[in-house]
Amino acid sequence: MKEVVGNLRQEFFAYLFAGLFCLLGIPGGHCAAWVCLDANAPVDAQSGDIAAPAQVIAETGTRFTRINFILGPWNAPDDTAQHGAQNMSWFETYDAIINALVSRGVRIYGLIGAEAVKSAAQLNTEQYIDDYVRNFVLIVEHFKDRVRVYESFNEPNNWESGTTTPTVPPYWFAKMLERIYRAVKVEDGHTTNTTWQVTLVSGPVFSHDEDTVASYFTQVYSEGIGTLGWKALKSAVGTYPLDGVGYHIYVAPATTNVYTIHQKMLGNIKAIWDVVKTYEGSGTAKRLWISEFGWRNDFLGSEAAQAKNLKTGFDILLGDARVALASWFCLTDFPGAYYGIFRAGEFKETDKKLAWSAFNTVAINAPTPTPTPTPAKAFGLFLF
């Protein structure tokens, strides 16, 4: 046990110093990571009303906000039906959301997941992937001038109700990643069009105290390389079909013990990073994009405890050279999920939790990282 803890501590400091070296301009360093805040649902799923409060998000000091491109009442991104109080189409609605954030200096980390497709086909079928990839391409095509980083299917390994079976088996997730990558960055002449060379992060896998997701992600690589077309893709464009690894960390839900949180977070990161190194090589430029981590104040017992854990979590992630982005989940509480830096309400001053001040302090004091280039050599250095 002492040896394991010692190795974790040694690895943490190695990556911490790599980040510090970058900030000090010492060769060989890597500047990690961007501060991000999940914005909750950007539109009301039933009415289509805009729910993302751009000014409120900007005032937190966040560098990025995670926007889930949900369809809501629209049938597809190119559905021209008018919905919501704004009486606009889907594209018009999200144009308003994205423009309001970008104009305030907030970059967008886009999630194009299951809520971005309404397919008549069952999940884990060719037809479902066809429908999903169509919408994915439409969204990237429309927003690629403003949104340069996208992740795909959210938590594909999340267990089906009452089982430990992943919602999307590794084979289908590997197929999904390849189809998306080819459609966005390779096909239709996109390899020579720099505007299409966005950063495609794999759908974020869900890790917790019971599962680091190392086994699932190993199977994804194995299926992609051994069964599907990942080798041919890498031969053609220099990379497997992911520019980074999406990862969620929900560990130690009921403690504020800093040592325990460090041990568990770093243990999960090491487990998934070992998989990445195995298949991508130890010198890979790819990074982990932590698009969700957080704690519920009701599980911890107080809002003060939540604020403490927020700081601890960011202290770990922002100093880790394996991490490209760290996103707190989330902006505001919703029924049964007290993760927010706001209590559910109208985003008034009185709705702010202690976690708001903790997040604001982290966000405004975090150094600006050096943007990580897209790893595919044939595509050049295009991220933002």
Description:
This protein is an alpha/beta fold. It has one domain: Glycosidases (TIM Barrel, Alpha-Beta Barrel), CATH 3.20.20. The chain has helices at residues 2-23, 54-59, 90-102, 126-143, 170-186, 214-226, 230-237, 258-280, 297-300, 303-318, 354-365; strands at 34-38, 64-68, 107-111, 149-151, 199-201, 205-208, 245-250, 288-293, 323-328. The chain has a nine-stranded parallel β-sheet with strand order 5-4-3-2-1-9-8-7-6, covered by helices on one side. Helix 8 (258-280) packs parallel to helix 10 (303-318). The longest helix is centred in the last third of the chain and has 23 residues, at 258-280. It starts with a helix and ends in a 19-residue tail after the last helix. Mean pLDDT is 91; it is low at 1-5, 14-30 and 372-384.
Keywords for this entry:
384 residues; alpha/beta; 9 strands; disordered N terminus; TIM Barrel; disordered C terminus
